[in-house]
Every structure is written in C-alpha cells, then in structure tokens.
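Rotation project, supervised by the postdoc (A.L.). Task for the rotation student: set up a whole-complex structure prediction and record inputs and outputs verbatim in this book. Inputs entered:
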Amino acid sequence: MALEPVELYRDEQHACLMFTDLVEEDAQAVQANQFLIVDHGTGAIIDPGGNLAFNELYMGMVRYFSPHKLSYLIASHADPDIIASLDRWLTSTRASLVISRVWERFVPHFTKVGKTENRVIPVHDAGGILPLGQSQLHILPAHFLHAEGNFHFYDPISRILFTGDLGVSMTDGYIARTPVTDLAPHIARMEGFHRRYMVSNKVLRLWVAMARQLDISLIAPQHGAPIMGPAIAQFFDWLDHLMCGIDVMDNQNYQLPKQMISAVPQRPQ
Ligand SMILES: [Fe+2]
Ligand SMILES: [Fe+2]
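Outputs recorded:
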C-alpha cells in the first residue's frame, strides 16, 4: 500500500503533490518521485516515471481530477525512470508530452507506432512559459544536468523549483517525504551521484547563476528529499564548487579494459 502523496503546496485553486514511494520498496529500481500540479482543475504531471509507477500514480491522480483534465506530461529529460510509462499515459489520457526538442524524435520508441502523433510539444533549448489552467509553468534550461536536452520547472504560485536529477539523493520513499533544511549532513547521499551523472562544473555554475534569480520556497528533485530553507543557498554554494563529470575524468578513465566481467547477473548496488 503506497503512502499518501506529500502536499507540497495547496490553496483553493492550486496544489502541488509529491509521490515518493510508488515503486515497491524491494524492487531493483531506484526510488523516484513523481509530481502532480493542479491549477483550477487542470493538471500536469512532472516526470511521470516508468511502468512501475503508472498504476498508483494514475489512481492517485483521479482522486483530484478526471483523466481528461490532465493537460501535460512534462519530462525533464528522456530517461526510463522519467518517461518509460509514456505509452500508457498517452493511451489513458489526452495529455500532451512536453519535452526537449532534442528528444522529440527519440520518445516514439517508448510507444506503439503512431501514439505520439500530435501529442508532443517540443521545447527549444531556451525553454519558455507554458500555460497551465489559469496559471503558468516556467520551463528553464538545465542542459547537461544531466541530459543533453534537459529542463527544470518553476511554479510561480508555490515557488517550487522542480529539478529532475539535479539535487537528488539516494534514499527510500519514506525519508524522501521530509525536506532537508541543512545541507551538510545530506551531502553524503548526493555527492557520488552528482560527481558521476552531472556533466561539468562550468554547467553547474551557469545554472546556479540563473537559479539564484528565482524566489524559491522549495527545490524538488526526482529522487530523494526536497531541499528547503537555508539548505537552498547551501545547495547553490555546493554546486558552485563541485567538480564532476568531465572535470574529474582523465586518461586513467579511458584505458583499454583488462578485467573480466562476471557473466552472472548481479543485484544492483
Ligand atoms: Fe536521468
Ligand atoms: Fe532520475
């Protein structure tokens, strides 16, 4: 039985909900968050996830509005934990997929032939402002953090910044419910992922300079706990100085391999 979604924000006409444990606790898949934004009865799902999350998220959504009121499936990038359930969402709702134009012609591989026809809103690298109900969602460039075509989403009503794989931590769906307000003890759960999955410090600094201009109540990543209060500025400072991706790669990482790989399947680490 899944936990109730976390209500990150609610007023009479607007709500932001976070689902943290739709993937079975013992599954081999990484914990992931899915987000539902509702404005004046119209909805958007941010990073709907893979097939593992579909049923529970769909059931969770129809408690707030009927499926035909879902306007958008919004994908930060095209990884399987972001959008592998696309075929089922396009079948069960009338929503359009909003995704970087970099991935526009790749996502049809997630669906049956023809399913994506007239259902994709490709976003150019500069991002833009998307109408949602009577409000708007800001689509911000976050390329190479970590995918080549990558966006984050800012909701000016709740002042939540949804950051996909940036700011994620490796934990379980229960711990992911409680926002982190002090970054220092949290860094150990974030560092390995960011050093390997984020592309470079240059891109982090460009992103931080943009993000500091926003009035942010909460940073909501796609894995692990949200970041709020003093931890937001601490997070920006941490990213400013973090070396990652190509910064930490050298010729040692590009040697012809000598070690045998075990032919026996392994459990994920
Ligand atoms: Fe990803
Ligand atoms: Fe992810």
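Student's summary: The first helix runs from residue 51 to 62.
Supervisor addendum: The CA atoms of residues 120 and 131 lie 15 Å apart.
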